[in-house]
Amino acid sequence: MSDRYQQRGAIEAAALEDGMILLDPETNEFSVLNPTATAIWARVAQASPSEEMTTEIVTQFAEVTEGAARSDVEDMLREMVKRKLITRV
After folding, report:
1. Whose CA is closest to 15, among 34, 40, 43?
2. CB distance 36 to 20 below 8 Å
3. Within 13 Å, how many C-alpha atoms sit on residue 32's CB side?
4. CA 77 → CA 3, 40, 62, distances in Å?
5. Model pTM?
6. For the chain, what are the domain ranges?
7. What is the C-alpha separation between 47 and 62, in angstroms, rounded?
8. Tens digits of per-residue pLDDT, 36-84?
């Protein structure tokens, strides 16, 4: 995956103790993010490629291998696009 992704401007976000909660005001759907998904969300505040997100996850979470991080990032990006939280740019 080499596409770049960016947050949709309409999404509202609030920090939680160990993650984040997102609200899509158009659908009134909430999404609760774990620490890994929160790190990905932070990276897509500016348009970012998935490779940079994978590197960020490996750096931030020492116990995560590059292969696992790549898989997690790709899965999370697909889910965020599906929920219309982010867009490909």
Report:
1. 34
2. no
3. 3
4. 10, 8, 21
5. 0.90
6. 4-84
7. 25
8. 999 999 999 999 999 999 999 999 998 999 999 999 999 999 999 999 9
